[in-house]
Amino acid sequence: MDFLKLENRHTGEILRMRRVRDAEGQTVLTIDGSLPPRMSGPPVHVHFHQREEGGVKAGSLGARVGNEKIVVSAGGTAVFPAGVVHTWWNAGEDLLELSGRAIPAGDLDRYLQALFAVLNASASGRPSIFYLAHVLWRHRRTQAVMVPPLAIQRIVFPLVLVVGRILGKY
Q: Which one of 59, 73, 109, 139 is CB 3.0 to 4.6 Å from 96, fit for a cystine?
């Protein structure tokens, strides 16, 4: 089976993902990843339908899960329940290596592929609001970043999309 490999050229984050069927026949997204020392992973976000779970193979994972801040060392595991706001980062001085899965797979691989493309298209690492709004709006029922707040996104993003269409951005 082929892996989908994503790399954020600004942070050095690498993700390798593959869809597989688990023992119950459910489609699960396996994820292996790495993040260089002292680098941040994704912004604060939520997966409305996927639970993420993973083990730290090397390094030290820092994470915020809801209101709780945790640090997980090599050999430990972290769980990000569906619907719970979270973020994670490399909390150590060594390469962070992770291995886990998202259950069910849903659209998480397509969402991440689109986000990485938008981030990598930016010279500064700050994505174009037109492209970011497009990706976030398309996946709004399954995934969300929490900045700006969702209430503002629901008002502003449709307007950004209209302006983007008028300007020929899409």
A: 59
